[in-house]
Design goal:
Elements (H helix, E strand, L loop, with lengths): L1 E6 L5 H14 L3 E5 L15 E4 L6 H12 L3 E3 L10 H10 L7 E4 L22 H8 L3 E5 L14 E4 L2 H8 L7 E5 L5 E8 L3 E6 L18 H18 L3 E9 L2 E6 L9 H4 L1 H21 L11 H7 L13 H11 L29
Parallel strand pairs: 1-2, 1-3, 3-4
Antiparallel strand pairs: 5-8, 6-7, 6-8, 9-10, 9-11, 11-12
Helix pairs in contact: 1-8
Length: about 375
Amino acid sequence: MKKIGVLFGRERSFPEALIARINRIAEGSTVAEAVNIDKVMAGRPMDYAVVVDRISGDVPFYRALLKNAAVTGTAVIGNPFLNGTGDYFFTLALAGKLGIPVPGTTLLPSYDKPAGTSDASFSNLAFPMDWEAIFAYIGFPAYMKVFDGEGTAEGPAGKKAQWLPDRESFFEQHGRTGQQVMLLQEEIRAEQYYRCFCIGGRYLRTVAYDRRNPLYLRYQTDGQADAALLERIEGYALQLTRYLGYEVNMLEFAVREDIPYLVNGCEPVPAAEPELLGTALFEWLVETTASYALERAEAQSAERDNLHWGEYLRASAGTGFAEVRDLEVYASVKAEAVSLMSAENAPVMPVRATKMAKPKKATARSKGSV
């Protein structure tokens, strides 16, 4: 009998619901439980066919443990070797290469030197930076964000994104960011926001999201995308997630003049509290993750690598990265999802594969929130 372990931190609602759901679906053929760790020996396997990881991005000990587990045959959802490769800046660069509309974004060096470095460590960095070219490219108003989604951009309520009305506010805010590497990003004033949850590179659930509401009401909105817009959003989400290699991902799109701009494409451990998501979305996330974990347990073999790798790394390790401009290549994924959904206890959301429409020309920027 195979075991599925769930590795988590302070959260309780989602891990406990996931464990209960796996055990209910499996009816004893596979057992799920919270991961229990009392020793870690190099090259020795864990007692789990699958581990669903919800915390190793914050705990280096767990990340090292999961790499050891992966090399000894455990199927880890998500791949511990991808930690740190899916930062916001890289994700936007990859999305743009794939033809997905993204805001203009530039990477900023940390205001303070990282610990253990000196001026000599930055002999390749111009001082000052070419601020005029950067500001001309991004424009104001703009947003400053932490480049990898970790930490905070110092400001009201410790937000990870700060709205900047002009260049003076940029220099003031950048001076508060210490050793954090930041992004400066074009503001997209959106008429609508959508979040897309993707599980296993197959199953999608897209919901309206209003970040102008209080946190616990952001998913409680009546916004509806038309069919063509929804096709584009889900096509972009599926394509990017499969290139990144995430088995779980949450993506956010800001829609301006019918163009869905990707404003967040890498949340491999999305917040999953029922009071934030609402009952229907929470239930879908639990059911779909449980079904996918059981799929992975059934396919797992201790005699081979059971990790999930993205198309970008596969291509880079083989013939090189190929620019992709449409989603016809993913038609087989849709057919696979439809087949899986016909099975008992399968998730309820199909993926949509569609050609990408050419984005319209962006208009002038004005104050909004991304």
